[in-house]
Design brief:
There is one protein chain. With about 120 residues, this protein is of the alpha/beta class. The protein has one domain: Udp-n-acetylmuramoylalanyl-d-glutamate--2,6- Diaminopimelate Ligase, Chain: A, domain 1 (3-Layer(aba) Sandwich). Helix content is about 45%, strand content about 15%. It is built from 6 helices and 5 strands; from the N terminus they run H-E-E-H-E-H-E-H-E-H-H. A 5-stranded mixed sheet has the order 1-5-4-3-2. Strand 4, helix 4 and strand 5 form a beta-alpha-beta unit. Helix 3 runs parallel beside helix 4. The chain is globular and about 35 Å long.
Length: about 120
C-alpha cells in the first residue's frame, strides 16, 4: 500500500514528505509507547501515534519506520517537523482516532505485526 493510498483512506493531511507519497508500506503499527515501537515495529512500516514530540521521530529513525501518521488531529510542533524533514520522514495527520485509523487500514489490506507472527509460526 502506498503512502498516498494511506493518506486517502485516513483522510489525512501531509505535513512532510509530499514528494514521497508513492512509497510502499507493507506493515502498520500503532503505539503511544516508544518502547513498544522499538520492540515491535518492523523496518519500512508506518507508525500511527498520538504522540507528537521529537522523540517520536528519533524512535522511528532507530526502528527504520518510514512514515508517521498522527491521529486524533494532533499536529507536531515545528521542532518535530524540522527533525522529520532532516531525517527524510513522511509525516501525516488524521482527525480519526487510532482505533478507527487502524481498522480502516486493516480493512483495505495493510497488515500488522500479528499477521507476520502467525506466518512465521505456520510456515
Amino acid at each position: 500500500m502506498t503512502i498516498e493510498e494511506i493518506k486517502e483512506i485516513l483522510e489525512a493531511e501531509v505535513i512532510t514528505g509530499s514528494d514521497n507519497l508513492k512509497m510502499e508500506v507493507k506493515i502498520g503499527c500503532a503505539a503511544d509507547l516508544m518502547s513498544d515501537v522499538l520492540a515491535f515495529a518492523k523496518p519500512g512500516a508506518i507508525l500511527l501515534t498520538g504522540l507528537t514530540n521529537p522523540q517520536v521521530v528519533r524512535t522511528v529513525e532507530i526502528a527504520d519506520v518510514k512514515a508517521i501518521c498522527f491521529v486524533r488531529g494532533k499536529k507536531p510542533d515545528e521542532n518535530t517537523i524540522k527533525l522529520a524533514k532532516d531525517k527524510n520522514l513522511i509525516l501525516l495527520m488524521t482527525h480519526l482516532p487510532m482505533f478507527e485509523s487502524c481498522g480502516r487500514l486493516y480493512k483495505k489490506g495493510l497488515v500488522g505485526l500479528g499477521y507476520l507472527d502467525i506466518n512465521k509460526r505456520n510456515g
